[in-house]
Amino acid sequence: MTVGIVVVSHSALLAAGVVELAGQMARGLVAIEAAGGTDDGALGASLAKTSQALERASSPEGTLVLVDLGSAALIAEMAIEQLPPERRALTRLTNAPIAEGAVLAAVESSIGSPLDAVAAAAEQATRMQKVVGRM
């Protein structure tokens, strides 16, 4: 089993694109789900879509959630809070950059790493962005 990944974005297109990219890097070995846009297709975040994506990506190994903006993080937190306690304990929200973080997390998950290592890989993207920003 691998750690599942959920990408929560205000844009359905952005979430789908990140999932497509990360999925290619993980060679189809990882459940990566998009939760993008509102329930009526507008820009924004949806509690229902996020909860459904968490269900689809659920894994006994855990689930990592990446978000694009602050209100998406609030929606993700609400969805995680609604999970049963045993699943909530295995679900991690990260502030890693959504695209780079999802790719690194997907690769790490695809090799069977545990949740802590998958989250650390995603968060490594934050450090990489700082280095590139100094160039």
Describe, in plain words, how this protein is organized in 3D.
Helix content is 55%, strand content 15%. The chain has 135 residues and is α/β, with parallel strands linked by helices. Helix 1 runs parallel beside helix 5, helix 2 crosses helix 3 and helix 5 packs across helix 6. The longest helix is centred in the last third of the chain and has 20 residues. It is globular, with a radius of gyration of 14 Å.
Question: Can I get a quick summary?
Answer:
By secondary structure, the protein is an alpha/beta fold. It has six helices and four strands, in the order βαβαβααβαα. It has a four-stranded parallel β-sheet with strand order 2-1-3-4, sandwiched between helices.
SSE diagram, text form:
Layout: E1 4-9, H1 12-25, E2 32-36, H2 47-57, E3 63-67, H3 70-81, H4 85-88, E4 91-94, H5 98-110, H6 115-134
Parallel strand pairs: 1-2, 1-3, 3-4
Strand content: 5-15%
Helix content bin? 40-55%
SSE arrangement, N to C:
EHEHEHHEHH
Distance between the termini: 39 Å
Mean pLDDT: 94
Helix/strand/pairing class, anyone? Answer: alpha/beta
Strand order of the largest sheet: 2-1-3-4
Number of helices: 6
Major beta sheet summary: 4 strands, parallel
